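Continuing from the previous page of notes. For each protein in this section, the sequence appears first, followed by its structure tokens. Read the first protein now.
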Amino acid sequence: MAPKALAMIAAALAATAASADEVRIAPPYRDATEMTALPGRVSGTLHSFIMRSTESGIYPGIRQIDTDSTRRRDAYGNRLAAPAEQQSAPAPYRREVFVYIPNGYRAGTAVPLLVVQDGRDYAARVAAALDSLIAQHRVPPMVAVMIQSGGGDAQGSQRGLEYDTVSDRYARFVEQEVLPRVQALYGVRFTSDPNGRATMGGSSGAAAAFTMAWFHPEWYGKVLSYSGTFVNQASPADPATPHGAWDYAARLIPAAPRRPIRIWMEVGEHDLHWQDPEVSYHNWPLANDRMAAALDAKGYDYRYVKAADAVHVDGDVVAQTLPGALEWLWRDYPRAGGGAK
């Protein structure tokens, strides 16, 4: 066969492989069957406990303050980050942490881990999905640690500081302060294999999930993202990443060697600021498109789902796709015995 023909076939195969990583779904969106409990199925257990700001050496607690500086918005209504000393004040918080433990778990056994941001929003859905998937041997038995943020939203808030900051601070908080409490309270032990450890979230919680794996791929090898806030929402501003999480696609991913991270990501067609121009650095669908393109160019193992007529962290889309997303992330991990370290 002529070299030109071989090149054309290779290009076509490459295009097919790339397109297989991107999936388009459309309404009507229906709950996956795995989200409904079946008669006779034994469920895992769901626990919760409270963590207070006074117990944290990493996040002592802040709140947004209302000033002329923090009220500033750009032409598209996006909040502009004020200097750190002008946007926040010290303030206490309390956060609830939910812990799902699979049926049949033996205390002290190393087990895969799923960390979920904005835990209260996902606890019931994650527990339902895992009950079904684990019972059907479609994912390995795992513990899910679902962590509520310290409160507020966006620049100047405790949640914004935790989730939108492009650094390893939040990952260290989870590893050093949250997981040891979970292990002490419930007798669980987590695998040290990053292929057995995933992190998940929606919106800024999804950006935090990716940031955890980006800065510590030795801790987390899998990411699940709904409507990821890969936009310029970091606060306080950091000269190293002047456009916050937007810089992942713009600079960080292209410039760095490929990390051993697998990511499943979704965005709604009518997600936040979907009509805003690129110069705003705040168009969620565009930001996720750019992330997918950057991941593809570097050869990452990713799946990108674009949901027609869907909005930001669309609950109907989550209920339809969550079981499949978890199964895709764990598709080659041992289902039982061996594998955990």
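Done with the first. The second protein uses the same format. Note its length before scrolling.
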Amino acid sequence: MKISRRHAASVTIAALGLLPLAARAQANDAAVYPTKPITIVYPYATGSASDTLARQVADVISKSLGQPVIVDPKPGAGGSTALEMVTRAPADGYTLVLSASGTMAVNPHIYNLKYKPVEDLASITILAEIPFIVVINSSFPAQNLKEFIAYAKANPGKVSFANAGIGTQAHLTQVMFMKAAGITANIVPYKGGVPASTDLLGGHVDAMIDNAAAQVANVQAGKVRALFVTTQERNASLPRVPTADEAGLPGFVTSGWFGLAAPRGTSQAIIDKLNAVIVKGMSQPEMRRKMIEAGWMPLGDSPSDATTRARGDLARFGALVQQIELKKE
């Protein structure tokens, strides 16, 4: 069937005429949003440091938008269970998920997922940077990083070194650290950071890599000895803990992040509205103080910046997973 130029032009003009209507509809939806409770799906077990972060963000959104915000834990498969559920949820702004560098950028290389996190979720913002920390049992015969490395080299494979699970970002960072330090250790994976930390405190493992926020209380109470944090600068909640550079491992800098995302197709106007209230709430002095004291490094960037970082990390961790030859589960 042939279509005349005049007919084609009229169809194009009509389609263009619909664009402002669609934009106005999105703006109207965002203007009244939300009209009912919002759910933030939490990908991990309750009681961890990131659980507190999710509830802090829920409180910010609730107070700003005037609707209850429920944090709903859905642990499993390194966070993949929760993210898959949210990718299938209605794209109406009422189901969100606590995203992370691990679930967005690491899991696609570790698990045979039925979805693509970076493509099937719309990033709202990155909430906070995650510094990692290496801690040891208080009775371990090393007082600092140099002594730990010396002990591990003198006793190859004998140091038991825990993480929150094979394929987690903590595990990948652990492998990076061991390679940079030139040591071997007995890597002990757990199903989450909480049981790993419990065994570290109980003396069942010698060392652990964890996110700094999860270990703040233990370090401050002297229950574990901190060797270093993985960020370029010291963590404000742990001012006495050196960076890797300061501790004797030059150039070792890495971190993760937690963010917030919605199902793909959620109106940009709603994404922008959520971003605005979260960034404003997180910039308040009291909120920043709470996050910093807990061990987080508050961020709060734009949806486009959050998406760009997720895509970059996806490529970066893919290369690392290939390098250490981890097989998909």
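What the second structure shows: The chain has a mean pLDDT of 90. The radius of gyration is 22 Å. We return to this in next week's lecture.
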